[in-house]
Amino acid sequence: MINDLQKWFGEGDGYVIIAMDGETFGHHIKNYLKKFLIPFLKVIKEKIQSGNLPELTIEVEGKTAESMKIDEVMKRFGVNHEFFDELEKFGLIQPLITPEGKMLSRDDVKIVELAVNFRAFGLEPRHLRVIENLASKETLSFEQILFPLIRQKTEEGIENARKTKDTLLDLSTKLHKTLIVKYLKQKFPEIFDRD
Description:
The protein is mostly helical. Helix content is 61%, strand content 9%. The strands form two sheets. It has a three-stranded antiparallel sheet with strand order 3-5-4. The protein has a two-stranded antiparallel sheet with strand order 1-2. Strand 4 and strand 5 (101-104) form a beta hairpin. The protein starts with a helix and ends in an 8-residue tail after the last helix. The model is unreliable at 54-65 (pLDDT under 50).
């Protein structure tokens, strides 16, 4: 596969998304670890060590937002490396590796801020994993709705996708809040106004 990557991208950069499960390695595909995964990860390690990585910026609603260094985010929110390690371990943030060190996207900085606020109530990153799992699954449903619109590759299709995305996010937020209120009312009716 390494040679195929060179055929696909030549000397240019490109993205490859790989989905694997634990059974794949050496069980279903003979020599998968030795012939693919280890050489593939070795190339990635060499790129990182050589510093031969592209500059990373994130596109946010038409504006380019630079990533923030993890040390800057730690200082901003008064958290330590262990907190970041937990956020990363539970899939809440995905730090970007750059020549300047680990960076966080604008979205990940917002997630850190929210996680810090949840922590004030005793909810640690491991507790937030449930929310991340739900968001991940919900995203897959939204992708199925948005993909046909984006695939049109027309201004109208993109605009329809933007509007649909906004509507889906609004509906999702309202449903999430309504469900939580419903379940809390069942447990603690005394803390809600009588309707």
